[in-house]
Design goal:
370 residues, 49% helix, 8-stranded mixed sheet, 8 strands, Rossmann fold, alpha/beta, globular, 14 helices, single chain
Length: 370
Amino acid sequence: MVFTPLDFLFRWIAGLISIALLGSGIYILHEWYEQDLLDRAWLILGWALVIWSCVGFLPITLLLRRFGQDEPNMQRSHRAQRISRPDGSEIHVEFYGSPDAPPLILTHGWGPNSTVWYYAKQQLADHFHLIVWDLPGLGKSTKPKNRDYSIEKYARDLEAVLSLAGDQPALLLGHSMGGMILLTFCRLFPEHLERRVAGLILADTTYTNPLKTAILNRMLTALQKPLIEPLLYLTIALSPLAWLISGLSYLNGSMHLTTELSGFTGRETRGQLDFATRLGLMASPGVLARGTLAMLKFDETQTLLGIDVPVLVIVGQSDIATLLSAHRRLSQDIPKAELLVLRPAGHMGLMERNAQFAEAVRSFGGLQQR
């Protein structure tokens, strides 16, 4: 799961459902044991709720989703390097493909780690020198000691990763919040464009506060101050408890359903759905909340017109976290941008439509090498 403010609402809803399921099952069994509920149907219902709370994800993933020929896993490379940063964090960087090939730096979204690029690593390593990094606080990269999870911080981290690309100008690919990091990078380091950066690929991302470019954006924007921000601060304060509830949501399958709702279109495989869900479960809820709060301050609208390198904008047609209209705005305001719509696909088009996604990246990269 890639986390946006919309996903946090879904996660809280899934958590409340999870508590209600397990709590109701335990209460019914207790009342039956105390003989306040004598009908055997109550016993069956109580056990059914408890069992579903523990293994409800199995029928959701195994029975309702197709089997895939190449299911994703948390593949890591033995070619890796760590970069120490002034804030005390360490960036874990991995390399795939020939060092002599054109460099392509992959920046993942908020919530998962670099293993989300499973298909990209499989399908693009023959064409590019892939440089893949974990955002600090996620995956194998350590947390910043000053608790700075701002997008500006990650843009500066990206510049450090770019130094590993060598003499060839690199392509930068960012998904979701990764695309937001790329836009902030363009504002902070315009001198690198063209000289060290050959082009950008912005996938399922936005140019402003993601609440403003998600489905039901007017309602979400109105709820930002009275509901969404307090929930994020509550998540930070109750991070261990939130992690426990998230684990329960995974087991009963409610987290799988919210992952599909926010990321897929129902055409994903069982392995893709479960993999994306597990990725969202691995990160600390407190870290996720801090990064999501940073997204609410994001606005690079004025940056778009100044980006003077070729840009490919990719979006899933059914993406509800960052709507198609936001990507049209990106492609219209960035001077050298083109838009590609993946059909059918949601926010996780890089996984659900991985072959089409990889082909688009290869074609765009080939044009920049000429």
